[in-house]
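Notebook p. 47: complex prediction with 2-acetamido-2-deoxy-beta-D-glucopyranose.
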Amino acid sequence: MYVRLILLFTYIITINTQTGSFPDCKSGPLSTFPICDQSLPSRVRAADVVSRMTTAEKITQLVTTAAAIPRLGLPKFEWWSEALHGVAYSPGVAFGGDLPAASSFPMPINLGATFNLSLVHRIASIISNEARAFNNEGRAGLVFFTPNINIFRDPRWGRGQETPGEDPFLTSQYVYTLINGLQRGDDERYLKIAADCKHYAAYDLEDWNGTDRYHFDARVSDQDLIETYMPPFETCIRDAKVASIMCSYNAVNGVPSCANKFILETIARESYHLDGFVVSDCGAVSTIMNAHHYTSTVEDTVAVALHAGTDLNCGDFYSKNTQTALDKKTIVEADIDQALQRTFNVLVRLGYFDPPEQQPYRKLSKTDVDTEEARQLSLEAAQQSIVLLKNTNKALPFDINGLQNKKIALIGPTANATGLMQGNYFGNAPFLISPLLGFELITQSHSINISYAMGCKITDNDESGFAAAIELAKSSDIVIFLGGIDQSVESEGHDRTSIALPDVQLRLIEQLEKVVRTPLHVVIMSGSSLDLSYVSDSNECASLIWMGYAGQSGGLALANVMFGVYNPGGRLPITIYPESYVNAVSMFDMQMRPSSTNPGRTYKFYTGKAIFEFGDGLSYTTFDYSWSNDSLVSKFSIQSLMKNNYNEKNVVGHPYRVNITNTGMVAGDDVVLAYVIPPQKTFNDQTPPLKKLFGFERVHLNVHESTEVFFPFNMQSLLTVAHDGSKWLEPGFYKILIGKQHIHTIHLQGKPTRWS
Ligand SMILES: *[C@@H]1O[C@H](CO)[C@@H](O)[C@H](O)[C@H]1NC(C)=O
Ligand SMILES: *[C@@H]1O[C@H](CO)[C@@H](O)[C@H](O)[C@H]1NC(C)=O
Ligand SMILES: *[C@@H]1O[C@H](CO)[C@@H](O)[C@H](O)[C@H]1NC(C)=O
Ligand SMILES: *[C@@H]1O[C@H](CO)[C@@H](O)[C@H](O)[C@H]1NC(C)=O
Ligand SMILES: *[C@@H]1O[C@H](CO)[C@@H](O)[C@H](O)[C@H]1NC(C)=O
Ligand SMILES: *[C@@H]1O[C@H](CO)[C@@H](O)[C@H](O)[C@H]1NC(C)=O
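Predicted complex, structure tokens below:
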């Protein structure tokens, strides 16, 4: 966001004393009007306050930095705050005073890897507590532009780290839980904060081969829209009832998102019943004209955006040009009123106009920020997100008692990582525990020598640090290489061109392998897929861990995992592709299914051999699955399903039940993944998904303990999406897989039948 950077720096140094003040409905200028009458519906109250404004005043309210209207007692309001994984730097947020820091949880890609929805809910509740506390102290707004729920379509995408991964089902479950935790708390009368599902729609390219996100036109088939790109937004809007969505920079099939009546009006409002407002990404009204050249005058630009339903402009295009649009009659005042009624309705629902005494959320304060519980949860989340990908001969965990008087060397560019583990959209963390510090903390009461050498930087080819690293490795009993990438490689505005492990790191790993006394351990930080085949295949590498960007306690979480204080149970929320993937498909190709120029995307469609698969992850213990074989095949006629099930969410047959037993030597977590494999034959020339996730559950089991998990199977999981977006019931055999076990088959009988 070019706008964002400028504002960011301004706001770090200015404390906005206006944010956090509220209109006075007791004795202020509005107190006698319907806006202050709590017995009225929020919509009526919002319409009332808008009706009190002059045209010029209204125009000042169409942008995220909304001016005060002193005549009405309306304070200045900054609509743009951020909280991707904790309250974060943004125009609406100012750290300082009593609130120098906010909890910095692991990045969303890590939360995806936990496959633990109750964890997501707890984190979201703490973020919204802290967000409200910041607001109450005048240090944040009430509207937070989070979450990012675009599908992580291509491993090169610089912002995949902000999402829970590549799967629409996982992303939908995540967003449902997250929005509940952010927007709803103990007080049912009010929104706790207003969240914002972004970036709507089909946004997942920053800048590739000379085309950036401001100019990119995502050509998306109806099939991919319905099957892949829209479901998380549908869940966010329809089921979780988010208060706002953000239209994206890119165009969708020729029409810039913020001017796109079809996706904003027809889909989001009419079909998904959006009850809230649409905000443009920052600068994304201006780019309708200036980048997409979809319009050629400012008055037409204002008109297409407002008419499409872009209610609020992050930026200043509306404040500068709406009067011109009125003068040139491309819009009428009612267009402005509609937009403001939607935005002010959310303010009313937030309790902005109501007395503070009656609102529990208004009592949250600095004592609710960076609490002991939040610190614990942040550590727990990081631990739950760590994915163990290789562990030859049980090289991990380390036995702390067996390592007395031994030396452990931490080598590599992320061994002493701190801010790097915050990924992007971060705030000021209360502390940052690097792996080095984590190892020191965990071994402090033992005589174990922990030493460190950086060896090399993330990508810089300079090898001058190699010699010291190799010397250290030679004299150490255990050597851990910690590498990966950072925001200089993957970030907002910046996609990757290579998904290889940076060359310099590979060279250092190769040299370390030659001198280590015991096989090397490798730890990778990244928000995305890196070709780890070398480490995976090498006999000299004993273990491999992927840990995303694990937040404020990431280093301690890692140490806890490597010493067996915590038994890892995270699973990859993405496919780890071979390096050659980037040559096999253009980043502009939005198609999920394979073609002659596309090997297919994500575990659902990728036809090549992954280095690691979606859902991969090991444990220090073993789990056994058992299920009843009473009815291994159930038959359904398509005709009867058509008759009996009008709703996609209706359950088909009985839920699948599986008993999970911990058959190993230590307690641990298993993530149970339930997939359906549809008939593997083309239908209307379309390749079916290889498999499709329809349920997941993370369970904790002590040694020899068993638990039963069950997964309802609904109509949606049986439907095939055709090229035109229509949904069908196709005859054939649908295999139900729990983990890698085929436990049941559904035999659908009859003729292909259109469902919707
Ligand atoms: C590790 O990083 C911290 C924070 O950036 C720094 O203060 C410390 O000196 C570093 N430690 C070493 C051994 O380089
Ligand atoms: C730990 O090992 C390093 C590197 O060999 C050495 O410089 C340091 O003195 C050792 N520390 C202790 C406390 O033995
Ligand atoms: C990338 O850009 C180059 C130079 O403009 C062009 O020749 C090439 O076809 C582009 N590749 C893709 C996949 O669009
Ligand atoms: C799971 O185990 C319980 C207790 O042993 C048993 O009653 C139940 O039938 C089992 N369920 C399945 C699906 O095997
Ligand atoms: C069900 O079938 C599987 C695969 O044939 C077998 O391993 C398992 O023991 C059977 N379960 C029961 C409860 O009979
Ligand atoms: C999921 O997260 C919650 C909240 O932190 C935690 O209490 C629970 O133990 C986790 N579940 C598993 C199976 O690890």
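Notes: The chain has three domains: 3-10+25-361, 372-383+390-488+500-568, 623-754. The CA atoms of residues 223 and 723 lie 5 Å apart.
Next step: compare against the earlier run before touching the bench.
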